[in-house]
Amino acid sequence: MPGGTVWIDLYDPSPEEVAQVEAETGLRIPTRAALSEVETSSRLRRLKGGLSLSTPMITFEQADSQLKPLGFLLTKDHLVTVRFHDLRAFGSAAKRLTEDEGGDPAVIFTILLEELVDSLADSLEEMAVDLDSLSSRIFDFDVRGPSAKRLEEPPPRRRDLALRRILRAISRRGKVLGKIRASLLGLERIMPFVSSACEGLELTDDGRFETIRRDIESLDEFETRLAENVQFLLDAALGLINIEQNNVFRVLTVVSVVGVPPTLIASMYGMNFKHMPELDWAYGYPYALTLIFLSAIIPIVYFRIRGWF
């Protein structure tokens, strides 16, 4: 590495790269398994002359979200970051350092935290827009295309497919919010630990740390509101599904009720008794058919007037 290197960014490093950095800096680079530990004592540790920090961080790869570990080794002379996925915050931080920021390890670490928080804020803002669009789809549920007739009702299969898609969309956004919350929680734990352990590391810009902490708190509240919105949309979608199911059961109920009187009449006149008043009547057969027809039509008209279908 060039002399005077301050920030070393290990992106999915090979064993040879890890060995080289350890030889150059004298630091022990944690493995991916070590960075994935969930105990606070494993994620936030004091080193000889520095700090070892790790947090899960959300990443979006191929339209899917994943949580992967992100590690920091901070000393007076070096900042080593260990990551296993691409994060746009690192590109933004490198650009800021190139343009107008200094090269002190503590300053670089602070810039990285700022960019990570800003990246999570952008993700939450995008999520808010997605949830607003999803809310319109749910409360204005209509799968008819623009060329369909106004009174044309979509077939049940299309309506079921639309509802399935809505539920999948809610599920995806709920999972993303959970991973964003895990990322915010990891950063939120880092802030007080670094502030209390910064003696000798020249982390003197407490104002920037306090600003980052307040930003994380505000994002945490914003994420909570979005999570409540997701739960509300899920309840609304389930309510919509219940309405669709009730419509089906209502139709089945009407059909069953309409079929009972004709069945009763047909079964009565189908009895093989010798002495039946209508047996020798010339108009007995049309009379029975008329009764069957009227007994089916009258319930349909009644239910139609009542607005059942």
From TrEMBL:
Keywords: Membrane, Transmembrane, Transmembrane helix. Signal peptide: none annotated. PANTHER family: MAGNESIUM TRANSPORT PROTEIN CORA. The chain crosses the membrane at residues 248-271, 283-303. It is a multi-pass membrane protein. CDD domains: EcCorA-like_u1 (cd12837). This is Magnesium transporter. InterPro entries: CorA_cytoplasmic_dom, CorA_MIT, CorA_TM1_TM2, MgTranspt_CorA/ZnTranspt_ZntB. Belongs to the CorA metal ion transporter (MIT) (TC 1.A.35) family. Pfam families: CorA (PF01544). It comes from the Bacteria. It is found in: Membrane. Gene3D superfamilies: CorA soluble domain-like, Magnesium transport protein CorA, transmembrane region. Coiled coil: none annotated.
